[in-house]
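Quick one: structure for this chain?
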Amino acid sequence: MLKAYYKTHLEAGTDEAGRGCLAGPVTAAAVILPKDYSNDMLNDSKILTEIKRNNLKPIIETDAATFGIAQVFPEEIDDINILNASFLAMHRALDQLTTTPEYIIVDGNRFNPYPNIPHTCIVKGDGKYLSIAAASVLAKTYRDAYMEKIHLEYPMYNWKKNKGYPTKEHREAIRQYGITKYHRKSFKQLPDQLKLDI
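Got it. Here's what it folds into:
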């Protein structure tokens, strides 16, 4: 059973999706849930089915006191590295909140402090706290929708299925067709024995 709050009911949970992908943005969400909020269906987005995540998305958006979504795209990821891009996406999502939180809880073990608001990093926080779980669902569903959209432009990579993650099929398509403007050039796109001149 997920807990409502870590410290205060005016608390933003934040999480990102797409950190380990070869293509597409890293997407983050920040969510403040109302006092005494409960939702038995809500859990870490990774253990929910795609149907459940998509069903939860409008519920979270309606129920949340406030939420924000932000994406950092490949060019910026290549410029500042994926870890910093993940933090930046979370900061930008927090910037969008219409209520300033008193506290921030972050999924993971590292975070760049957000100005003037204390935070705690919680490993596997998306499986422990409702607001982080809600942020994980929003980040994942928004990112998946974006990958499905750009799939139409480059269907040979099958992003609607792999969402940009380094599946065997995705790597095979890179080997065959090269990379696109949506690929992260700073990432190792192929194993060493399949190196590409990029």
